[in-house]
Amino acid sequence: MYLLGFDIGSSSVKAAIVDAATGRCVASDFFPKTEAPIKALRPGWAEQNPSDWWDYLKEATAAVLAASGVCPADIKAIGISYQMHGLVAVDKDMNVLRDAIIWCDSRGVPYGRDAFDKLGADTCLPRLLNSPGNFTAAKLAWVKENEPELFEKIHKVMLPGDYIALRLTGTLCTNPEGLSEYMLWDFAENAPARFLMDYFGFDTSILPDVQPTFSIQGRVTASAAAELGLAEGTPITYRAGDQPNNALSLNVFEPGEVASTAGTSGVVYGINGTVDYDPRSRVNNFAHVNHSPEAPRIGVMTCINGTGILNSWIKRNIAPAGISYADMNLLASEVPAGSCGVSVLPFGNGAERVLENREAGCSIHGVNFNIHTRSHIIRAAQEGIVFSFMYGMEIMKSMGMEIERIHAGHANMFLSPIFRQTLADVSGATIQLVDTDGAVGAARGAGIGAGIYSSTREAFASLKVLSEIHPGSDSKAVAEAYSLWKSRLAAQLTEK
Length: 496
Known about the structure:
Blueprint: E1 2-8, E2 13-19, E3 25-31, E4 47-48, H1 50-68, E5 75-82, E6 88-90, E7 100-101, H2 109-119, H3 121-128, H4 136-146, H5 148-153, E8 156-158, H6 160-169, E9 173-174, H7 176-182, E10 185-186, E11 191-192, H8 194-200, E12 209-210, H9 222-228, E13 236-241, H10 242-249, E14 257-262, E15 266-272, E16 284-287, E17 298-304, H11 308-317, H12 325-332, E18 343-347, E19 361-365, H13 374-398, E20 405-409, H14 417-427, E21 430-434, H15 438-449, H16 456-459, E22 465-469, H17 475-495
Parallel strand pairs: 1-5, 5-13, 9-12, 14-20, 20-21
Antiparallel strand pairs: 1-2, 2-3, 4-7, 6-8, 10-11, 14-15, 15-17, 16-17, 18-19, 21-22
């Protein structure tokens, strides 16, 4: 008995087949092999053709079926993870009306800002847990104003994962976690946010039906089965946005647990057991995959744009030519924790929500030409990224969250011993590195939704923990360096 997971990203679509009994991934693959194109027709715009996602999914499915030798009839459930906040619009015949406006498109910003200003923080924050921001509802507001003839043709709107599920099953639905990504879930009413839809002039009929995150959400049609080589009738039993799904993949479900990723950008995603928000809206709040009104589970997310992109900039511009990331880590290890007073503010990749949408820029502080070397800057850059994570985690803590354990995949910045040890030292949390990815997590989620696993504990019993990192002897030096870093950030923000 097997489970199939899809991860619909903006750079590629990944598929994974998991043995339900052992939890072992028997095959995984992704397409395209070069990064998928993003159309930027104007500055700040980002669009993709949803049909391309489907084509990539077909290639990935064919590859994992061939590599695994698994009989399609033995795949008992399908789970879907997807890039968050995208907008797909279809007509009454379920034909896509325009390219998807994806997560990194910023054209919705003024629409979300105006909604927040006019509806007020006292209305938006307790009910949406966020400002309307640049989320899916604001993107749809842009379409309504700028493409009115197309808007009139819209029968339904959906997220990228909803579109893939529609292509697989012919059934259109979403879930509370998904609607909280739209910024259209009213946590006070536990229903779609009619007050924001009324403000934007959206009819509630434009939304898909709402189904539980773990449930049968449709079955593979005969035509989709023929295209993909799957068995007709295979159920889709789970779907979630990529960050909630990443948390699920890392076995993060309960208050006090935190998931983190550190690729080009970095994310810390923790679980809050109360329905709460930051009064300054510096972090994002979504319904987690196991959220319910009776047992709230809110995914609180801080995203730092300047993460791996800073480390790669350091590699290209400051480290010796041709050096590897592993060798950069060795250079950084030559200097002590705190980098002898050098601080790097990593905010050089656009506006940061954690800084209240200010574009602070990256800056290097405290360099003494007589004592500091490139090794100090390389280490300070890694520490600065960690400190930006901690800056967001302090906001989470102010909302009543406890951060005791951080779960992360053994990838990207978490491959650096300095990065992960600094994070353990400054946060006081234990870091647990595990071997998984989004597609494998989606497959496990499908097993929960299909009832193959009786609990999340059973679903993740076989999750392989590679190592644990505990706070160490440098914790005091790291705390002092973080305090200095915060003072320099505060001074820079005051100047701006």
